[in-house]
Amino acid sequence: MDKEVAIIAYAQTPYEADVESSREMQVLQVTRAALAAAGLKREELDTVITANNDYLDGRTISNMRLVEPSGAWQKNESKVEMDGAYAALYALTRILSGDHDIAMVIGESQASVYGGYVPGIMMLDPTFDRQRWLLNEVSAAALQARAYMNACGVSEEQLAGVAVKNLDNAAKNPLALRAMAGADVRKVLSSRLLYSPIRELMASPLCDGACAVVLASGKAAARAEKPVWIKGVGFSHDSYLTERSLAEMGSLRDAARRCYGMAGIEDPASQLDLAEVHECFAHEELMAYEALGLCAAGGGGDLLDSGATRIDGSLPVNASGGVLAANVACAAGLARIIEAAMQIRGEAGEHQVPGVKTALAHGQTGLCAQENIVYVLGGE
Amino acid sequence: MVQNVGQNRVPRASIPLDPVFSWSVGNWMEQFFDGMKEGKIIASRCPACGRVYLPPRMICERCFVKADEWVELLDTGTVQSFTEAHVKAGKGGELEDLESPEIIAMVMHDGADTCLVARLEGGSAAVGMRVKAVLDPSAENVLDLLSCYRPAE
Amino acid sequence: MAKKEVAVVGVGLSKHVSKRRDVNIAEMVWEAVSACYEDAGLKPKDTDAFITGNMPAFEGVNLPEEWGAGHWGAYAKPLLRITTGGTTGGSVAHGGYYAVASGLYDIVMCIAFEKQSDGNSTMGLNTVALADAAAQFQLGVDPGFMAAFGGGAVGVAVYQASSYMKSSGCTTQHLDKVAALCRNNAALNPYSHLKQPGLTPEEVAKTTLLQYPIRFGHVCPATDGACAMLFTTGEKARKMMDKPAYVLSVSSCSDEAAMVGIAGSGTTNTDPCVQEGCKIAAARAYELAGIKEPRREIDLAEPYAPFAHQMLMFYERLLLCDEGDAPSILDSGSMGLDGELPVCPSGGVISTNAIGASAMERVAEAAMQIMGKCGERQVKKEVRKAVAHGWGGAVNFNVVAVLSDTPRR
User: What pTM, to 2 d.p., does this model score?
Assistant: First the structure.
């Protein structure tokens, strides 16, 4: 895609364990902030897509109470019940259709309100797995981590290494919930053991927050200061949890392939300057390195150890601290898009990586990253 | 940067909902449960590609045809992955400490292409180890028909 | 990139009955999906993207496609979930339109369903009221007042019907006539739920009064069912069939506001019969479709009407006549299968309501009527342009699609 849809503004709330605010107010804040950053009035929005989930919000048709704070009143609004990175895709198709020029995309949830890991359990096969109550997001992730570690010879120390890198980066991100400047592997490996090998500091903290992105057509974006162009997008669905190999992220590989094809990326490791990956668990980042083609199959651990994905490395991954720093369901992937765009625009403050022109953003939905979506963004 | 407003406390209310659902399992899962009542492991197979689904699925997702061939599998299989659980999910979704750890295993029965998940009892776990399903054909609740796995001799 | 024309090349429907205990959710939806592929002569491997939706509260399953989409052909394919409550099916169809129009996805499978018998419809509908309750609680509204004012779906319909009758001159006899018209149409539709051939308005008038003016015979059933549609580019569609149905435009309007308004949104649209949003969405859709005089140019309408009065009310809100004129247009016979502007030839939502699917089934019927595939219920006049509508949200969410036998130029 060539200068057809751009990100022209964005906003995130700080991520908190239990924010003293309603979700409506959090959405209102990011909507107003994004509009202000775009220099737009609400009236100039053509369409609004929100990402939220009935079970997380604890109410049916969860978007209907967000109509007002999301700027969608009397507008053409819809809801994607997946991560906000998918809402952005839907908004993208609305703009490319020619029917809309400017879209507001919002993702939100409040972990302080929904029942922790229960909504994830509700994604399981209701005729069997769900009710046996052995599988949940974390135990499933643990099964995936073990399968991956066994297949690729990755160690627990390397998993901890991802957490160390990201939580240290998070210390430079004022919005992060969990941060540990100068974190070390021992601290991670001695944190509460949940489901082996997953320990608390290897698992993202579910929390409260919201974020918003304004997308604009090429015509409308031409007026914006620093548009970040969407060069390519790809997404894919993977088979049910027990019907696929958990040792690799097949749907992320397919999503990346589709995205790269559209964006003209043949050698991601050299053509990408930075990546923001949706890692709900530390091992997912290593698996993502491979699925995204940043290294050879089985090479995720080695890539981490090489230091290439550190904030000062050749291909920084999760300079923001990633999802290990804050996991707002329905918003975390959209936040990766925002963080990648911030890097391209030079607005990432303390966690800015110099010279980012082309960046990758990844979002996931479902247990063990069953659904994946990948974007390549570019400043030129 | 966005500031969080709401310096005053936001009112909170807890509205307990205890909905009862009654999911139809369909004929394929019914065969699975009926099989276990007789001590058998029943799977469905795709006539086009030969893929064997356990628990049985009506449609082979790769070929988009009915997996309507029935296969009785052995009760033995291989551990594809496992985890030692030190917590479990409480009703409210938090992870509560378990009194003593237990092992949850993902097992591929010999001849199947998909996995079953259950506790592994009576031994430590390793990827690739051989296990045997323990069925409880007289269990009142069909969900308890597959009791657990144990190391195969 | 030039915008692509969007066409419908396949429609599939499952059986629609009150309880499908013989299949689970995934298997029930497969019926509609496989019928759709067969109708179009396409296979899952030809599909570029899948879009699916249902109303989660009814089945109590979160993201059912995670477990079920393998049954629907989505193996290793791009998948998107869109849900907007009662309008879900329409919103999913709109998603399909945009996906194809964008030029990124040429063949898109859209799936919408509900398996209400697996859950508890009252619970599902009451959780809609929960959002209202939460909003009002935050604003300090007394729970006693809330309880007196609320009322679930039938409650809203009662206010809406009473208000509509007052402003339009619609009588209870008109409601009886609407129900009879729809259930007779449904009898000719193999996929409908409540088929009542020969039902008369007088018989409807004798059904139990639920809450004035709404009788049992004026209300939709709770249905288990699924609908699937294949959208593609105009170019591809013309290679596949002689007479595809084109989707000229889609639009929606979210006119929701908390009952007492938040942050001065300015809406005073608390009378649910006003449906300003429907008028806005319809006007936008007609404009995009190049339609200047809908009442002249639209040949057929499938408004979303789970309650009888809504067929007339939405006929007006879809700008097909002056406000208040729908009852007399019904009396004239114009809305019948052999009329000037047939309405709900499918039998409508009042005859079949698998909630998540219902708004898509309006689009599906409009498409099938244009394609001439409706058999016994095919309307007499030639259908060149049709309007399909969905209603839901809390009270004020409307989706509109305009279909035609010729592409938008």
Answer: 0.96
DSSP H or E run through A338: helix A332-344
Query: What are the C-alpha distances in Å from C67 to residues A9, A85, A121, B61?
Result: 36, 21, 12, 11
Fold adopted by C6-119+220-404: Peroxisomal Thiolase; Chain A, domain 1 (3.40.47)
d(CA C233, CA B44): 38
C residues 162-221 lying closer than 8 A (beta carbon) to A = none
With respect to residue B127, please indicate whether it lies within any of the assigned structural domains: yes
CATH number at residue A86: 3.40.47.10
How many Cβ atoms are within 10 Å of A263's Cβ, its own excluded?
25
The parent domain of residue A41 ranges over: 5-115+206-221
Q: Which residues contact C398 (CB under 8 A, 6 or more apart)?
A: C87, C252, C253, C255, C275, C277, C278, C281, C282, C317, C389, C390, C391
C-beta separation of C305 from C349 below 8 A: yes
A2: helix, coil or strand?
coil
Residue from C354, C304, C20, C318 nearest C182 by CA: C304
| CA-based nearest distance C377→chain B, Å | 32
Asked if residues C213 and C172 have their Cβ atoms less than 8 Å apart, the reply is yes
Joined tokens for residue A278: 């949706």
CA B90 → CA A54, A125, B93, distances in Å?
Answer: 20, 19, 5
C76 touches chain A (CB under 8 A): yes
Q: Say if the Cβ atoms of B93 and A13 lie within 8 Å.
A: no
Q: To the nearest whole angstrom, how far is the Cα of B52 from the nearest Cα of chain C?
A: 14
The complex's ipTM works out to: 0.98
The band of C393, judged by pLDDT with boundaries at 50, 70 and 90, is confident
Q: Do A194 and B95 touch (CB under 8 A)?
A: yes
- What distance in Å separates residue A162's CA from the closest CA in chain C? 28
Name the domain count of chain A: 1
Ranges of each domain in chain C:
6-119+220-404
Which residues from chain B sit within 8 angstroms of residue A121, using beta carbons? 89, 93
Cβ neighbors of A373 (< 8 A, separation 6 or more) are A83, A85, A86, A89, A233, A234, A235, A255, A333, A362, A363, A364
CB-nearest to C251 from A53, A76, A96 is A76
More confident residue, C272 or C190: C190
Q: Which residues contact A312 (CB under 8 A, 6 or more apart)?
A: none
Q: How close is the nearest chain A Cα to the Cα of B45, in Å?
A: 13
Q: Residue B20: exposed, middle, or buried by beta-carbon count in 10 A (0-12, 13-18, 19+)?
A: exposed
B61 touches chain C (CB under 8 A): yes
* Paired tokens of B27: 């004929």
User: Of C94, C89, C76, C74, whose CA–CA distance to C34 is shortest?
Assistant: C74
From chain C, the residues in CB contact with A371 under 8 A are 66, 79
Whether chain C has a CB inside 8 Å of the CB on B59: the answer is yes
pLDDT of residue C134: 61
Q: What is the number of alpha carbons within 13 Å of residue A212 lying toward its C-beta?
A: 29
Tokens of B138: 């007289």
Mean pLDDT is lowest, of B68-77, C2-11, C43-52, C349-358, for C2-11
Residuewise pLDDT in 10s, chain B (153 residues): 344 444 566 777 777 777 788 999 999 999 999 999 999 999 999 999 999 999 999 999 999 999 999 999 999 999 999 999 999 999 888 999 999 999 999 999 999 999 999 999 998 999 999 999 999 999 999 999 999 999 997
The answer, for A237 touching chain C at a CB cutoff of 8 Å, is yes
Contact between C101 and A99 using a beta-carbon 8 Å cutoff: yes
